[in-house]
Amino acid sequence: MSTTPATTPDLDDPATDPFDVARAAADHIAEVTGVSGHDVALVLGSGWGGAAELVGDVVAEFPTHEIPGFARPSVDGHVATTRSIRVERPDGSTRNALVIGGRTHLYEGRGVRRVAHGVRTAAATGCTTAVLTNGCGGLHMAWRPGQPVLIKDHLNLTATSPLEGATFVDLTEVYSARLRDLARTVDPELPEGVYAQFPGPHYETPAEVRMAGVLGADLVGMSTTLEAIAARHAGMEVMGISLVTNLAAGVSPHPLSHAEVLEAGQAAGPRISDLLARIVREI
How do 147-156 and 237-247 pair as beta strands? Predict the structure, then answer.
């Protein structure tokens, strides 16, 4: 049973300020973890779930849906546990990481506020950095399943935004060049590319993939861009990392399947989890 307080504002009510719900969620996290504030947030997509155990020492963990404003995940393979983790940095100092499991996707039909709620909650806990990960389709034959790719920019093809009203945010550098450079100190061979988010839940057609490629995309998926916009609006520095779980439609000669995505994520899991943990310790 959810422990969400009955007095929590309704995130779905247009009259509700979504940042009020984020603050209520942050208060709940502080209460259940005993940690007054967090520094870096991780949103773990398909294939990345194992990183949580490698980042540092788990201080507390609890079902994500018990946090105000969150719902149970509706997709197989997505972790529904949120953790507070103490991270020891190379210089001996420590930071607190909030690992949010069970992100809400736009295709679930719960509204864009729910999609953005995770990063807004992280910002309300004090996080100044957001690390957003996903599993995606790749447009380049050289990037085989299991290849991690830094996101340098994105195409938001969802026809929506997490921002409401006359809210203008500069997106010249959505994904921090500083953090990408830092990631390459851990793995100098990490490539980077442009990620295009489609609304889903159906996979893209070959024509849509070709269109995305003409527009400049290297990767296609169904998450991340709306969260990145919301994180930048909240003042956070953003790192995005995709795991190529399959070649995109028309690039691959084979039909696409969610089982293929999960299988590729599981196969690459130990390697990419170790990579992400090392990057987070450097942030």
Answer: antiparallel
Percentage of the chain beyond pLDDT 90 is: 71
Helix H, strand E, coil C: the string for 181-248 is HHHHHHCCCCCEEEEEECCCCCCCCHHHHHHHHHHCCCEEECCCHHHHHHHHHCCCEEEEEEEEEEEC
Residue 184 lies in a domain: yes
Q: Which residues, 6+ apart, have CB-to-CB distance to 16 below 8 Å?
A: 9, 10
Q: What is the pLDDT of residues 29-61, one digit of tens each?
A: 999 999 999 999 999 887 888 888 889 999 999
Residue 156 labelled as part of a binding site:
no
Q: For the domain that residue 63 is a member of, what is the CATH number?
A: 3.40.50.1580
Q: Which residues are catalytic?
A: 204
The annotation status of 36 as a binding-site residue, yes or no, is: no
- Count structural domains, the chain: 1
- pLDDT tens by residue, 220-270: 999 999 999 999 999 999 999 999 988 888 787 777 767 776 677 677 778
117 is in an annotated binding site: no
User: Is 202 one of the annotated binding-site residues?
Assistant: no
